[in-house]
Amino acid sequence: MDKLHTIYYFLDLAGTFAFAISGATAARHRGLDLFGICTIAYTVACGGGIIRDVCIGAIPPAGLTTWYYLAIALVAAIMTIGLYPIVQRLNRPVLLFDAAGLSLFAVTGAQKALSYGHNGEVAVLLGIMTAVGGGVLRDIVLNRVPVILEKEIYASAALIGALIVVLGNHLKWVSNDWIAIIALTICFTLRILALRYHWNLPSFSNGKASVDN
Amino acid sequence: MDKLHTIYYFLDLAGTFAFAISGATAARHRGLDLFGICTIAYTVACGGGIIRDVCIGAIPPAGLTTWYYLAIALVAAIMTIGLYPIVQRLNRPVLLFDAAGLSLFAVTGAQKALSYGHNGEVAVLLGIMTAVGGGVLRDIVLNRVPVILEKEIYASAALIGALIVVLGNHLKWVSNDWIAIIALTICFTLRILALRYHWNLPSFSNGKASVDN
Amino acid sequence: MDKLHTIYYFLDLAGTFAFAISGATAARHRGLDLFGICTIAYTVACGGGIIRDVCIGAIPPAGLTTWYYLAIALVAAIMTIGLYPIVQRLNRPVLLFDAAGLSLFAVTGAQKALSYGHNGEVAVLLGIMTAVGGGVLRDIVLNRVPVILEKEIYASAALIGALIVVLGNHLKWVSNDWIAIIALTICFTLRILALRYHWNLPSFSNGKASVDN
């Protein structure tokens, strides 16, 4: 199944690019300078994976050693600075790539934790962290409440993707490649449907409004 | 002294529950959704211990591998959502459990750092981190200045608890079990007295007010 | 070249002190209490190095084990509380020491990553992290957008210092000591010139202003 790894590789690049674009765009809106925009782009692209690698003992973290992650983040940052009208028009494919990145990072994050010999709970938690950690760091650095904790089916799609990997790995009904394909497809479909139909998880604040500054 | 370990175990569960309740309540007030409330509850319960374990090389962190920490955090989150009036009425026991958790996490955090062969400074710093790190992460994610850095005798009670463990371990006047009991008692008492009599550490801002948003 | 290591040692202490002063001053302005001021002073002084050490597998992190870093941070915190008029008058030397610390931490951070056998990308990224990570953590905890991402030639000076170390180490045109001296001098000069002439990196926000709270 070499074809699968080619697809993985493409999804990895596309997802990294979409994550970096989301970081660079948010940083630009916030008025950060050249260095700030590059930093946030890179943080969104690699932050979740770095936290995962530190927690599973994969030292040094892949996000720090792999040159093309950094290169993709810098290209996304420079595009967001120099070709902003184009980046804005790319909004729809970027959302698609972002959903692809979300699915891939959740699945490969859970797989990597399992491959280091850790248990299913670690794999699910760090699968989610790989997928959404970078976005959470972006929002923390930009001084706002992480959007994925407030609304949208985003982290919960990652949860389901990582959960399928762990359950599939435990039950061994089908090969690991098929488990990954199923997990990717379900996570991606869930995220796209949630975007299309504006699905949100319930929230429960009473009286006191959720004011983000 | 098997009785001590039973007490430890009970305090650990009660403290984890109280920490998770504090996270879930704050997340609910801030208008986070279901996933956000569960995440913040889990972060407060396990965040400090995860940072400690990463720093001492205890990979994977206990907070990620132990199923009942996650389970307790989810129960606390769901109670905060579904049984909010009851959780509000539990305010007083939760403060008590929270003080118990603070003491236990400071003591066991320092002990774990020592047991990994690190020096007294590491043990004191990571004892404090175990006890207050989750709460600091909660406030950072919820976009406010950590309350324990602004007022209250909270982190300083943890400091004293961790310090007693390290000094006791160094001087070896009594057994480690007795050191732990003394440290737990003093830290807990200090925290309860500070709550009861509204003790605060001094602050020194001049002119410019401390405005939290 | 024992003289070099004496200079290193002095710069390390002076830089740590300046970083701690910047943390303590910001914490005092924000109205934090005694514990908060000490914590932020220590965080700025040691935070970047601790993140570096966790990422390269240097466990436990030097910032947690070295007593004089903690001692310097506490002295800086207490000076900022008790001798605030003097600390304010020290503004100019503190800026100088801060630039020295920035240069030294970028250079030694990159060197340490290389000495642990990691590649040039890791060394550059973690050299920057060593130099600016503490300041970024300070701003995150104090609930504001990190100033180094918004303006000033600060992190970019660290980037150039770390880059020179990595390139020099790769090309081996001169000895490592000379590489370090060149990197230190260029990084320090760049930072001082940027301060003197108010150099900033460009930012690109359009319409929406960059409002920090």
Automatic annotation (TrEMBL), chains A, B, C:
Residue stretches spanning the membrane: 6-27, 34-60, 66-87, 122-141, 153-172, 178-199
Ranges for domain Glycine transporter: 10-84, 96-168
InterPro entries assigned: Gly_transporter
Pfam families: Gly_transporter
Top-rank taxon: Bacteria
Topological type in the membrane: Multi-pass membrane protein
Keywords: Cell membrane, Membrane, Transmembrane, Transmembrane helix
Major location category of this protein: membrane
UniProt key word Cell membrane: yes
GO cellular component: plasma membrane
Coiled coil: none
Cell membrane is among the record's keywords: yes
Subcellular locations according to the entry: Cell membrane
Family listed: Belongs to the UPF0126 family.
PANTHER family given in the database record: INNER MEMBRANE PROTEIN, UPF0126 INNER MEMBRANE PROTEIN YADS-RELATED
Protein name: Trimeric intracellular cation channel family protein
Organism the protein comes from: Ilyomonas limi
Lineage: Bacteria, Pseudomonadati, Bacteroidota, Chitinophagia, Chitinophagales
